[in-house]
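WARN retry 2 of 3 for item q-0093 after timeout on previous attempt; input resubmitted unchanged.
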Amino acid sequence: MTRAVTKGEAWNAIVKEKELRKLPNATIAFNNKTTTRLVEFAISGSGATVHFLVEGAPIVNKREAEQPVTIKLPDGTLIYSTHIGNLDIPWMPDSMATAHIVPGLSHSLLISTEVFCDAGCKVTFEDWVCKVHYKGEPILTGGRDKKTGMWKLPINPTSRDNTLLSLDLPLQGPRRQQHAANNLYMLPCRQQQLKYMHQAFFNLPTQTLIAAANNDQFRGVPFLNSTKMIRKYLAPSPATSKGRLTKQRANVRSTRTNNKPEQDVEEEVEVVEPGPESHANAVPTDDQGSNVFCCAVLADATQGTLYTDMTGSFPVQSLEGMHAFFVAYDYDTNAIFATPTKDLKDNTIVQAFK
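OK item q-0093 returned
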């Protein structure tokens, strides 16, 4: 697959081929600072109540905010606006051009569709174009980002028809379409929220979560970045205890202790020297001798034993439609087997066992 050529690359190729930089007054013609200015775009957000810009965005009439706006991020963090100003759009009324500077925003700039509609504007979204009309006249025109699929509007346009296609963006070419499916879970209680995040991190022990939060390893993770919330709202989970059993095998080694050391036993052995009445080389007769037979049988109480258990239903279904795991442990081979199951019914468990 060939890479799409941008308009900037196409223009540079023309300049090099035609040797345009050798023409008279080429220095002035190719000076971007005197001929053009950077046009920045912001996402057209229908969920934003005001215009939100990052620090350093091009605005006019910038001043400190007397009443800062408070914004709550998905992880529970609160950020505040520091300054207000107007979008650099001369033909737009000030009532709909007021924007708030929020340094805590990492990258996204949001232009509020609600502000335009409340001011009497008409906002239309088409396949690749977004337009804002005020009193029947277009005041703002944007386009759709081919990478994210979101509509964007310029915050400092040079004309009323600054679209994404008119800037130095990739030309129309082969593009791989990406799809996504999002789920929304309503968890109103803190206990449920902590339980969900706890299961998402495989039911780690509480002390492990607290240590990770203290090390700032849960930065940006909702609810788990606060040790206070973990200690207060996280209930003990049976999955944590069952998944981390530390037991020693039984009947592996003898627990019997010797009452006396080996040296003491050797010292008690009496050495008898052969006397005049004793015969060292004498062979006992049938009447004097006896046969002693010794046999020891060691049995393993857990030999041939198989342990099984079900994990219970997981909070999220797998792509193959599985909800739980059937786990088996074979003592003889010291092996653990895990088979995914679709449900917890008896027939399903028997089939997984086979």
